[in-house]
Amino acid sequence: MASVDYAWSIELGQELTASEAHEKWFMGILSDKTMFECRDENCHAQITCVNMDKQQYQMKMREHFKVYGQHSEKCEEVKRNKDVNRKYKTGAGTESPELEEEITFSMERLLSHKETQIDKHNDDFSEGQSVENKIVKKEAEGVKRSGSRKSHLYLVHTLVTKYLYGLKNGTLAKIIVYVSYPGSKKIYPTPLNKLFINVKNISLMSREASKTRIFFGKAKICKNKKGEYWVNFEETLSNDERKVCCVISQQIIDNTLSKNASKKLLDCFLYKDNTYCFAFGKLKETKDRIYINILTLDHLACTTEDIERLDDLC
Ligand SMILES: [Zn+2]
């Protein structure tokens, strides 16, 4: 069964990559992984987003699209897919094929622009309009199909999935994320091996420590009486005695796109041993502690995969 980069989401009336579909499922915007079809306007081949509805830590394989239906005779997508430069991984048959992907990660909240437009489309959604919508959208989108897939992402746990994948395959330096920081119009290309920083490998004096990065390490998550979560990292920064932590206040929870889903996910890791936490934020020092300040729970992720063991394997 063939795999594709993009599929048309019937639920949303929009073209998506599998990672985007997964995030939209997490945010409660999509619910059915089988509600996709071929993005060619003349084709309705059924597509399923495998693992769309699994949490990152439950996935054995990354989310990806699988075509189950038959493409129509006139389908342009079939021809296009043959031309696209795909690098199929040999060996491990369980992994999805490795495709060129361009990832944009936006740290701004998205509710204001894109999502509200999507909601409007959904109001008057019916079968007939879906096809019409598909054609109109396609014309407007023009050339989104230069060869590599483009994903616009908002949740750090989706990036962690890509990080783990890159770590296992030794391709971290090759996977570039275009990060758009809050309040900045510029977009900064950063390879995953620079974007992710193990807290114990960095000194507060280094240049990287002053940047907004995904700091990670083994940590224990606790919850206090005020309902705040404390992510207490087990390791300190290099040459520093102070404890490293990330405090998740009610305000940060309120800033989250999918508050309930994110809280529920975080609760799965409460007081759990062997948890790695990833916090996309800035370091701030006080006399006793180093804080990783984040803006929203969308910028925190956890996994029980043994990252340091994986790192040694590379
Ligand atoms: Zn097709």
UniProtKB/TrEMBL annotation:
Domain of life: Bacteria
Protein name: Uncharacterized protein
Species this chain originates from: Wujia chipingensis
